[in-house]
Amino acid sequence: MLKILVGSKNPVKINAAKTIFQQYFPEQEIHCEGCHAPSGVPDQPLGELDTRLGAQNRVDYLKAHFDADFYCAMEGGAAKFDYGAATFAFVVIANKQHSSVSRSCNLPLPEKIYSALEQGEELGHVMDRVFNTTNIKQKGGAIGLLTNNLATRESSYTQALTLAMAPFIHSELYS
């Protein structure tokens, strides 16, 4: 049995991690659970550095406090790039020997939504207000709302986690 700890109690993040580990290790029984792990960054990180640091801090916390085969964390953030504002996520996967960082795709954000983030609001709360939804961050997320659910928060995490697993699956190439 593989024990996977996710640095969040959010079911979207837990499901994404469980899906990936089941795909990479189909012969194994997967026990995947979410744990509170502080990010050490603002609730709505702005910029790639804080977003990546939030995911790394969560994994570091899990490794220091729990025993598992793999630790993973996903941190959603937003930034303004020269081509416009976007939201994205960083993911970190680690075991006792190695760590891997990956990043999701960018979802372009409307300027009025990014402005609310700059004022200190969290993306999920802004999206709930704009789209009249409730707790969208534990469902399809902003990406689901803005793509008519052709992509979701979970699918974005799933893709980034899939990529972050490459150094574990082909460790001989990454050592």
Automatic annotation (TrEMBL):
MF GO annotations: hydrolase activity
EC number: 3.6.1.73
SUPFAM superfamilies: ITPase-like
Stated name of the protein: Inosine/xanthosine triphosphatase
Homology family: Belongs to the YjjX NTPase family.
Pfam family, one: NTPase_I-T
Subunit structure as annotated in this protein's UniProt entry: Homodimer.
Residues the entry annotates as binding substrate: D67, A68
Cofactor(s) this protein requires: Mg(2+); Mn(2+)
Domain of life: Bacteria
Positions with a binding annotation for Mg(2+): D67
Bound cofactor: record note: Binds 1 divalent metal cation per subunit; can use either Mg(2+) or Mn(2+).
Biological role stated in the UniProt entry: Phosphatase that hydrolyzes non-canonical purine nucleotides such as XTP and ITP to their respective diphosphate derivatives. Probably excludes non-canonical purines from DNA/RNA precursor pool, thus preventing their incorporation into DNA/RNA and avoiding chromosomal lesions.
Assigned keywords, A-Z: Hydrolase, Magnesium, Manganese, Metal-binding, Nucleotide metabolism, Nucleotide-binding
Entry annotated with the keyword Magnesium: yes
Catalytic activity: ITP + H2O = IDP + phosphate + H(+); XTP + H2O = XDP + phosphate + H(+)
